[in-house]
Amino acid sequence: MLNINKTSGTLYFTIPQNRKNSVYYYKSSAASGASYYQGQFSVDFYAHQAHTLATTARDTANGAYAQANGAYAQANGAYGQANGAYGQANTGIDTANGAYAQANGAYAQANIAYGQANTARNVANSSYAAANSAANTSAVSANSGGTLSAKQMNFVNTASITVSVTQHGGFPGQANIALTANVSGGQEYQYNTTTTTAEVVDSWSISSYRSGKYFIQVENFNGFLVTDILILHDGTNTNLVKYGTTALEGNTGSFTSDIAGGLVRLIFTPTDATSQLTFTRSLLTNRGGAESLPTDLMTGSDGYDLMNTLTITPTDLNA
Predict the structure, then answer these.
(1) Separation CA 254–CA 200 (nearest Å)
(2) What is the DSSP letter of 142?
(3) For the segment 136-195, what is each residue's pLDDT rounded down to a tens digit?
(4) What is the pLDDT, as a whole number, of residue 20?
(5) Which among 217, 247, 259, 306 has the fewest CB atoms less than 10 Å away?
(6) Are residues 98 and 208 in the same domain?
(7) How far apart are CA 209 and CA 288, in angstroms?
(8) Residues 222, 101 share a domain
(9) How many structural domains compose the chain?
(10) 171 lies in some domain
């Protein structure tokens, strides 16, 4: 507490003169013009300390305020960066979605193209197979010009041949097709023996065919033979006739025939176990036919004895 009556002028303080409890007493002088006033004043130690603490607290608060402002500025900066990153992320998502949609579209188009390619491949394969088949079975010339295919026809055991002309591209057209036949007497068969005992060379159904004709050639180490053979059957027995035979060198073997298991069999007994037979054959259909006596018109039975059926009364020529 400063207790002086000086209301104007300058106060001069000196070091404390004494201390009582917590109060410091200072000696001061005041000058007004040439006159000085002297006196004592006291300062409360706790008030001074509180003032010091308040000042420190204020400075600390100001520092904290400045730091808070700095943190706020940094937070604002981070917020701006986060917003920027969010915008970029959204842009990235949009771009990725667009790319995904384009990829899906490309995938769908690729699948369509794959299906079309498969279809085209199948059509090409079919066309290739048809072309190969046509090339291997026919020779066709256009308007009497050059042959379109060098392949020749080869029909094996075919009773009839049908030639079809298909319009190209849906447009009507005409084709002149010339067929040249080279008939060699039917399909050629081959058989090789493995023993010198009787072997079945060929067989056919007795219910389907009545007779057969063979043109047959035999080759082995003993000689060569070519001959025609006719075979006829009645369902139980066979009859074989060999004719038109010509041979070179030695005996090649012998031919016989029989019926076994519903089949007519052509049998060859060779003189050499490694004989080679080459032949063609033609068969005539079994059309049924009578294999018993004709029906008796009087009794309705198959076969009859005239002596048992008719009553004959002898006539006495002398009577």
Answers:
(1) 12
(2) S
(3) 544 444 444 444 444 444 554 444 555 555 544 444 445 555 555 544 456 899 999 999
(4) 56
(5) 306
(6) no
(7) 10
(8) no
(9) 2
(10) no
Give the model confidence (pLDDT) of 14-62 as tens digits: 445 555 555 555 555 554 444 444 455 555 567 778 888 999 999 999 9
Q: Domain limits at 233?
A: 189-285
Rounded Cα distance between 220 and 215, Å, is 17
Query: Are residue 10 and residue 120 in the same domain, yes or no?
Result: yes
Domain assignment present for residue 305? The answer is no
- The amino acid present at 74, given as its one-letter code, is Q
- Look at the block and give the residue holding tokens 């447009």: 171
Number of H helices, E strands in the chain: 2, 11
**pLDDT, position 32:** 46
CATH of the domain at 273: 2.60.40.1680
Q: How far is residue 293's CA from residue 309's CA, in Å, rounded to a whole number?
A: 15
Q: What is the side-by-side strand order in the sheet with 199-205?
A: 199-205, 263-270, 253-260
Q: Nearest-5° angle of CA 91, CA 96, CA 102? A: 130
Are 218 and 276 a contacting pair, CB within 8 Å? yes
User: CA–CA distance from 277 to each of 105, 131, 167, 264, 274 (Å)?
Assistant: 69, 36, 47, 18, 10
pLDDT on residue 94: 92
**Residue 177: what pLDDT?**
56
Partner residues linked to 280 by β-bridges: 215
| Residue 306 is assigned to a structural domain of this protein | no
- 227 versus 139: the higher-pLDDT residue is 227
**Is 266 within 8 Å of 254 (Cβ atoms)?**
no
pTM, full prediction: 0.39
In a domain, 108, yes or no: yes
Tell me the C-alpha distance between 33 and 261, whole Å.
170
- Are residues 193 and 110 both part of a single domain? no
Contact between residue 192 and residue 155 where contact means Cβ atoms under 8 Å apart:
no
- What spatial distance separates the first Cα and last Cα of the chain, rounded to whole Å? 212
